[in-house]
Amino acid sequence: MNKRTGQTQSTAPPNYHEERVEERQFDYISLEDGTEVTTYIDDQGQRMYMDWDLSTWQPFPDEWYAASSMSKVQLTLHSSHFR
Q1: CA distances (Å), origin 51, targets 48, 58, 79, 81
Q2: d(Cα 49, Cα 60) in Å, to the nearest integer?
Q3: Are 57 and 67 in contact (CB under 8 A)?
Q4: Residue 76: which of 48, 49, 47, 38 has the closest Cα?
Q5: Mind giving me the DSSP string for the chain?
Q6: Residues in contact with 15: Cβ distance below 8 Å, sequence separation at least 6, in sequence order
Q7: CA torsion, points 64, 69, 73, 77, in degrees to nearest 10?
């Protein structure tokens, strides 16, 4: 799916490179209220989330761990599994 147009495309975009290595592993966490949060763990081990209103990465609040489907330990282990 093309994120800009919302259309499904059957060919790879011209700038797609199969050998590309992703530098970040993103996790998508669902909070109790149904909000889905895009997160990653930075180089210091801090989970960060994208604040779309500010268009910046912010530290993931500790109280959100309780409002998510996984604990802080589970989320850390889950992310480190994909590194």
Answers
A1: 9, 6, 19, 25
A2: 6
A3: no
A4: 47
A5: --TTT----SS--TT--TT---S---EEEEBTTS-EEEEEE-TTS-EEEEETTTTEEEEPPHHHHHTBSS-HHHHHHHHHHT-
A6: none
A7: -120
Give the mean pLDDT of 5-17: 76
Q: Please, which residues bridge with residue 49 across strands?
A: 39, 58
Average of per-residue pLDDT across 7-36: 80
Determine the average pLDDT of the residues in 14-41: 82
The 8 Å CB, 24+ separation contacts for 24-29 are 25/79, 25/82, 25/83, 27/75, 27/78, 27/79, 29/64, 29/68, 29/69, 29/70, 29/75
